Amino acid sequence: MNSFLIELEKVCLAFSGREVLEEVSFSVSRGEIVTLIGPNGAGKSTVMKIALGLLEPDKGQVRRASEISIGYMPQRITIEDILPLSVRDFLMLRPGTDQPQVDEVMELVRITHVAASPVQRISGGEMQRVLMARALLGNPDLIVLDEPVQGVNIGGQEELYHLIGKVRDEKNCGVLMISHDLHMVMAGTDKVICLNRHICCSGEPGNIQDHPEYHALFGQQSEAVALYTHHHDHHHDSHGDVVLDDSGDKHGAGCDHD
Prior knowledge:
The protein has helices at residues 44-52, 87-92, 99-108, 124-136, 154-171, 205-208, 212-218, 220-223, and strands at residues 4-15, 18-29, 33-37, 59-64, 70-73, 142-146, 174-178, 191-196, 198-203, 230-231, 235-236, 242-243, 256-257.
């Protein structure tokens, strides 16, 4: 039995006579992280909007699991400085949200320490965690992440990708992620889809990196990318500081990277 949360089959869409998606087919299952990569104008955002139900395709089918709930994390959000809004208040703005739900997601994404801080004063990495927390409110079956590490430094990017995997594991949700990143994202996803209006290639990261279509799409950038894997006893927060491992011990700041 197919356990997909969402499935696109031969989806086509045109704007003003220009085809932006050509027979795009893929699925996302529970517990799976699927990442869309591709150049600007490839149709990644259009696929995301179709997955969210904001756009209907001209051709093809979109199937969603019965009674599916979807959480969405945008690239960024702008909140005016004149609006007095703490992180906790911002999360509470979501309809149907109560305090225990907010406390739970803040703990999961490790932003409890900024709960009372104005959203305009937290760091870029912390703001991305806040947006992820908002996407998790309501315990969605599928979360859609649009460039989740946008504007975050390298240490914060590592931590956010680690966090996405943790959320998938703890919530057993599906993840559909859009990214321009060809480095760390490759180690944190189960399936990669290379999109350029149509699907050029798709599969596990290790297989994709040897695919000629992948190299044709990204050129020299793909030549420099190696699978990014970690063997270490700690990780880093959005500021790059060392965070204790699950055993509660901090063994130092050294990491072994392959």
